[in-house]
Sequence to fold (237 residues):
Amino acid sequence: MEKREELYSGKAKSVYTTDDPKRMVLLFRDDTSAFDGVKVDQLDRKGMVNNLFNAFIMQKLEEAGIATHFEKVLSSQESLVKRLDMMPVECVVRNIAAGSICKRLGVEEGIDLNPPTFEFFLKNDELHDPMINEFHIRSFGWAEPQHVETMKELTFKVNDVLKQLFLDAGLLLVDYKLEFGLYDGQVVLGDEFTPDGCRLWDKETRKKLDKDRFRQGLGGVVEAYEEVGHRLGIKFD
Ligand code: UDP
Fold:
């Protein structure tokens, strides 16, 4: 496998083509950003930690029967993935209220959401990822109705698997964002699952161990990600 040209560079990851048109390389950089790129920084070790964290979670999801784009770790900051045709929507499940839902609905951070709630957002930086509903997705053709159903089912299935995995490590999975794409017509989980795209709190103290440490200037960002990783049994070098 040969890495070729950069296809796309996002706020924290870059994507490269390979000699195989059906495979890409994801590079997890040390960059971090929040508030649509308004707050940015470079955090030592973050690329490596997120690459190995993502690999661990994607493998757990595969074991649970959820198709993901992940294939293998190539280096400390790079992984090989299947090339998907991404759908431009973000799927968010919330087990506990935090972040944008608190502002939008005037609810207190920390309340349990029973049953967990689901939201779609449009992937569009210029528009600041507005919340959308299934009718918007259908009317504007952002995804096929049957793929919308599958994305919802898979996002909740991920919740069943990961809520328990994190709970066993003394952590609450507060919320998370997933992105899906099509591979040979099948809906497959793409992008990443790392503490950059989810909220994780210590079960007892409710200490924040995710990107809110960066968003809120709490410090110890990568240290928190590593602590979560260690609790899950991930080995970082
Ligand atoms: N999220 C993400 N990327 C985004 C927006 C949200 O990974 O562009 C994640 C975020 O980390 C959190 C969940 O999705 O785990 C819900 O985010 P929320 O809507 O509360 O928005 P935020 O507070 O990040 O503005």
